[in-house]
Write a structure and sequence with these properties.
Length: 466
């Protein structure tokens, strides 16, 4: 036992040295039923601090103590399996993306009964139906959905207006605009082409879903050779080779080209919204007009949420949902109370940490059905500077962004093929990512960490977030 303790201590030290956890030690809260351990993938310092503020209020109101541990998303699987083997699973894991929920479930590490009870207590009718659907496996509620981000198509409204072009909401309109505006030192569109970047997969999946292209059918049969998929591959390939910059394009280069005023369109995640408005110092718009006015580009940019291809039955878009999972060894009652608090009293503060990448999936309460939607609409966004979302973008767009979760699709998961044992096709196609672009690994931003964590879960990535 002494040797085991020494080994575990050494492992903990190594983990800390690698920066995988922001705290370490015995993850078990012991036998105290009023003390729980929570891992959070929102591990950027300012977001951890906001979470601590919420937890302080939770403890004051309930008497339940919470040990918060920040976890690096790419290391989640490794850390969870190590903790499970050592009998030290946390009680709750927060900000868990869809693919990770499925993996935790396949390894038998979740308590779906607690998640289901939390949804019932909060009121299933108060949630976005698609959010509940995507976080279920059959009749099992794997997690309580918390928030999401979506992939978007940004375009230069001024250039479109000058050329008399319609908004790029369809394959035909996108191709027409890319061809027409691809001149004078301006690319028709900035599109990711780096095969090693999850952001590329996210960007393609966004446009492929628009054409009704699915990775698999409900029976699990791979359908990438279907007509909708072949047409989607052809469409993406033509845009990338004819109207986008030459060379390998990444999550960073596509953003940089658009920000420099050298591209008429770009496919990126919602994490671009604050950067577009000049609120992040290390990713400022650099176009000529932007030098005197940081918000010039945001005012002259239109945003298309869902796109429709010729074979698509309706507009669709790629996105990522995250949620709160309760583990199989959790103190069920205290964990349930905590999750319910995070989706109720602490919800506005939680989604307000990064509103551009945390669209609410719970609309409100039974007494105030639209309370959380209304609060999000007025939330501030930004990193180095903060401004209200409503002061930067028109109300119709804000509504479309928030309601985008209802149009969200994900290869395999939407067809009920997300569970392990049914994910071979996804692995073969390299479609297991959940990162946010711009966020971690392509993130989309959890930050600002690698490629912006945002695209990671985000064009995003750990799938992805930008």
């Amino acid at each position: 036992m002494a040797r085991l303790t020494k080994v575990l201590g050494t492992l903990c030290a190594l983990v800390l040295a690698a920066g995988l956890l922001t705290s370490c030690g015995d993850e078990s809260a012991g036998g105290n039923p009023r003390s729980i351990t929570v891992w959070s993938l929102e591990n950027v310092s300012d977001r951890l601090e906001t979470t601590r503020q919420i937890l302080k209020k939770f403890t004051a109101e309930t008497g339940i103590e919470v040990k918060l541990v920040g976890v690096d998303e790419p290391q989640l699987s490794q850390l969870v399996m190590s903790a499970a083997a050592a009998g030290k699973l946390p009680d709750v894991i927060g900000a868990v993306p869809l693919a990770a929920m499925q993996q935790l479930s396949s390894n038998g590490l979740l308590n779906p009964d607690v998640a289901n009870q939390a949804v019932e207590d909060l009121g299933s009718s108060t949630f976005n139906p698609r959010a509940l659907e995507l976080t279920r496996d059959g009749g099992r509620q794997l997690a309580v959905p918390s928030d999401g981000w979506t992939q978007l198509l940004y375009y230069r409204k001024d250039l479109f207006a000058a050329a008399g072009l319609p908004a790029p909401t369809t394959y035909a309109a996108i191709e027409q605009a890319a061809r027409t505006l691809n001149k004078g030192g301006v690319e028709g569109i900035s599109l990711a082409t780096d095969p090693a970047d999850p952001f590329t997969q996210q960007s393609f999946e966004h446009l492929a879903l628009a054409n009704g292209c699915q990775l698999v059918d409900p029976q699990g049969k791979v359908t990438l050779d279907s007509r909708p998929c072949k047409d989607a591959f052809r469409f993406y390939g033509d845009l990338a080779t004819k109207y986008s910059a030459s060379g390998t394009q990444t999550v960073d280069s596509t953003r940089a080209t658009y920000f420099a005023g050298k591209s008429a369109m770009v496919v990126w995640s919602s994490f671009l919204l604050d950067e577009l408005a000049g609120l992040r110092d290390d990713a400022l718009p650099s176009c000529e007009q932007c030098k005197a006015d940081k918000q010039w580009l945001s005012r002259n940019t239109g945003v298309v949420t869902a796109v429709q291809g010729p074979d698509g039955k309706q507009p669709a878009q790629f996105g990522e949902l995250t949620g709160w999972t309760v583990t199989k060894t959790a103190k069920a009652d205290a964990s349930r109370q905590f999750v319910e608090y995070m989706l109720n009293e602490g919800y506005n503060q939680w989604i307000g940490m990064a509103a551009e990448g945390k669209f609410p999936v719970r609309h409100g309460t039974a007494a105030e059905p639209e309370a959380f939607d209304q609060a999000w609409d007025k939330a501030d966004i930004g990193v180095d500077a903060r401004k209200p979302l409503a002061a930067l973008y028109p109300a119709p767009l804000i509504t479309d962004l928030r309601e985008g979760v209802g149009k969200m699709q994900r290869w395999g998961i939407t067809e009920g093929q997300g569970s392990p044992g049914r994910r071979d096709a996804r692995r073969a196609a390299g479609a297991e990512g959940d990162q946010r672009p711009g966020e971690r690994a392509g993130d989309g931003r959890r930050g600002r960490e690698t490629g912006d964590r945002r695209h990671r879960r985000d064009p995003g990535h750990v799938g992805v977030r930008a």
